[in-house]
Amino acid sequence: MPKEFDRDSISNTLIVAIGLSLVCSVIVSGAAIALKPIQQSNEELFRKQIILEVAGLMEPGADVRTLFESIEERVVDLESGNYAEDVDTAEMVAIPDELDLAGIGERARYIPVYHVMKNGELDQLILPVYGKGLWSTLYGYLSVAPDGNATRGLQFYAHGETPGLGDQMDKEDWRAQWDSKELYGDGDQPQVRVIKGLVPDGIDGGEHMIDGMSGATLTGNGITGLLQYWTGAHGFGPYLNNFRENS
Ligand SMILES: Cc1cc2nc3c(=O)[nH]c(=O)nc-3n(C[C@H](O)[C@H](O)[C@H](O)COP(=O)(O)O)c2cc1C
User: For position 9, what pLDDT does the model report?
Assistant: First the structure.
């Protein structure tokens, strides 16, 4: 007579539990592998959408891929400030502590930037910028005019600052201030900064200043630090300098 399956024995319970875990883990890993290309394509689409938004080109309901056709991606070698081709974009460079105003420790040597073209001419340069706020790393894009100096916009797309405090950086009226500020004064040292309080009318150097976010001075300081790093000599400074010299 065949032996009956003992559902309550320890060995059978273990066999069923382990078997079930194996089946589930195969399903979960299979799904992760199968969904990876979709996830990457969605991330790419999201990144393109943010670039279009900071460039002021995003329209509700418009096709992101079609709008992005007016944008050219170029890779910049941050050491020289020149464009590079066929390079290893995974190469990282340590940032000396005294220069690390963004608090990021290291950065890639070769970084993609975006040329927004209008009637065949360069209209905006879109640069990726990121660095520490108060609680989190803020990731965004800065739009600069072809003179390498005037800002056209700044938009963050990922951060973990506090809702109602640090996240005021996402508000449209605060972001609107980034149209037509100046990154540099007479020298190569970045001057643009988020101040504490409101920028007084007619103040000397007001062209470099952005209103502070009430109750969120520390996030504002983070934005100042990361922008001064990325527009400085260790960031896109040499690249932007090429445009400033030619304008
Ligand atoms: C729970 C909590 C969350 C906070 N989140 C932020 C934040 O996201 N960004 C920020 O700059 N300050 C934040 N603060 C306030 C800072 O500690 C600090 O008081 C503020 O940045 C100073 O800015 P103020 O001089 O404009 O008041 C937070 C404070 C608390 C208690």
Answer: 86
